[in-house]
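Retro notes
What went well: the complex prediction finally ran end to end.
Inputs used:
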Amino acid sequence: MTFFSKGRMIFAGLAVGIIAALMNVLGNPANMGVCIACFYRDITGALGFHRAAVVQYLRPEIMGIALGAFIAALLFGDFRARGGSASLVRFLLGAFVMIGSLAFLGCPVRALLRLAGGDLNGITALLGIVAGALVGIYFLKNGFNLGRAEKTYTPAGWLMPVIMFGLLLLAIGVPKFIFVSESGPGAAHAPIIISLLAGLIIGFLAQRTRMCFVGGWRDLFLVKDSYLFGGIAAFLVGAFLINAITGNINFGFEGQPVAHANHLWNFLGMALTGLAATLLGGCPLRQTIMASEGDIDSGITIMGMIAGAACSHNFMLASSPEGPGEFGPVAVIIGLIFACAVGLLMKENINWTVSKTSKNISH
Amino acid sequence: MIEIDVRGFACPIPVIKTKKAMESNPDKPLTVIVESSVSKENVTRLAKSKGYAVKDQGESLLLEPNTP
């Protein structure tokens, strides 16, 4: 049980919260620290999959997290190539995790970071995550699951770590085809080596402890298990401490950095993220970690998140400090309908394979 | 012996399946066939919180209700 004790989780949560808040001081956008959704969105932009000029940068934190988790998984024997569980459903749920996050302007990690910086919209977001997780729990209790994954070829499991290493090389070399923001949040970043180191440490700790910013809420309500929640609480405390020391706390709803104060869409956006992440079995950080442990279903989910980020900016879904994007609310509602349909219809006690009219078909 | 196969499922499905089996078979020992270390840890934590003794048998976990 060595690494699964609550004490270790609280230590890891504190450490990750401290690192995330320090990244604000070291150059990353305010209250963004290591926002997983924001950083995939920036990577999507850097690759030119969307052309929002202010959010394009290959964030080395993401590659660090993936590679840190990969090293930890190899060292501790947790690497197992596996996949094949409802890939397309996962891809789309991943896209909606991103669309919901970009309606709020942050993933479940940034919801805490914003709160730790005094941005009270973080509370609305947390309420949304909890609401989404509760709906997800309802589906889980009623037999929902995405189906079994199978063991697969080890090299298939290596793909995501290799892709992440490739992205890291692009971040270092910055060839001509990579887009780099000259202003806006994409232009605010810590030195590359610091970003990478921060990511490596976070990835290592998150892999060892199974830290998850949606799973913590889920387990609290589903099985009254506070192990993962300990990491969330400790993360908030760690980030808050650093912000207090560095004088980066400014309480209020209005005028917060890279944020808007439309409560309805902050809440519903994060409800979508919370629900989709509960159905997927983990938040964007956890998906990144699992993809590094050989879970190619999580790899597909990450590809879905990248597609979701591209859609968000190409189709005017993503919010801005002025408020929700023109088509953002419609996309969030479509996402909620899709996620509920997945939760309701993908159940073991519904037998989709047997036709009632044909005697010859069996499963 | 009641056997639950949770191989291939990601968390929290193994925990939910185990919990359901506990609820429909109170005070009976259960065997949970499990492959990943994460699932093993999660099912073990659940079982201990529900008053079961847990024996790791490699490919599976044997959960035995603690006699009062």
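What we learned: The CA atoms of residues 26 and 258 of chain A lie 17 Å apart.
What to try next: split runs per interface for comparison.
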